[in-house]
Design a protein that fits this description.
Order of helices and strands: HEEHEEHEEH
Structural class: alpha/beta
Number of domains: 1
Helix content: 25-40%
Distance between the termini: 92 Å
Largest sheet: 4 strands, mixed
CATH class: Alpha Beta
CATH architecture: 2-Layer Sandwich
Radius of gyration: 27 Å
Number of strands: 6
CATH topology: Double Stranded RNA Binding Domain
Strand order of the largest sheet: 2-4-5-6
Length: about 200
């Protein structure tokens, strides 16, 4: 038979093992979430009477606060490049179209917390994000016989409350940039239709 002292030792060892496993699980980082690129190839192609399309990225992120576009799961500049790649088609024999990325920024600003009695019953919005997407599409036919352009700009703003997890923050910012990019798509497609009809095929 197992003596009382041996039984107590066994129980202590089991408790220590369970506590160690619990501490290890608490220290484990949250699983990393993989976010897909945003594509637009499910939308109709915008066919242009040019021989080639160039994508020019004039916007250069400063990579420092208040800019955070290099730290979020959906990169605005890459999303705009994907837009041009997926939606614009060169179907002509001569001429060039240039898709110029002017702005692809997301800026963060810390918000002041509420104070006093109201703060006890309020979930503070502690961070505000501002996204700006802007681009210009220029078309020039062979020999300089014709030129045209269209521009588009889309901006959005959202706040995040205190206490959100890293994954919740990333999910929110992904959806935020996605919504801004969809706004840009609608504005640019409309402006191309309105102002560049002679260069459409």
């Amino acid at each position: 038979m197992m003596t009382y002292s041996r039984l107590l030792s066994a129980l202590c060892a089991l408790c220590a093992l369970c506590l160690g496993a619990l501490l290890t699980s608490c220290e484990s980082p949250l699983p990393e979430v993989s976010y897909p690129e945003l594509r637009f190839n499910h939308l109709p192609a915008i066919k242009l009477d040019v021989a080639r399309i160039e994508i020019i990225e004039r916007y250069q992120s400063p990579l420092r606060p208040p800019n955070v576009e290099h730290q979020i799961p959906l990169a605005p500049a890459l999303t705009m490049r994907n837009w041009a790649t997926d939606r614009l088609r060169a179907v002509g024999k001569s001429g060039v179209a240039k898709f110029i990325i002017i702005d692809a920024s997301v800026k963060a600003q810390t918000l002041a917390k509420k104070k006093g009695v109201k703060a006890i019953f309020t979930v503070n919005q502690v961070m505000r994000y501002d996204a700006m997407l802007e681009a210009r599409l220029e078309v020039e036919t062979s020999g300089g016989l014709g030129k045209g352009f269209a521009t588009a700009q889309a901006s959005r703003q959202r706040t995040l409350s205190e206490g959100v997890s890293i994954n919740e923050r990333n999910d929110a910012l992904y959806s935020f940039v996605e919504a801004t990019a969809k706004d840009f798509d609608q504005v640019m497609a409309k402006n191309i239709n309105d102002h560049m009809a002679p260069f459409r095929r």
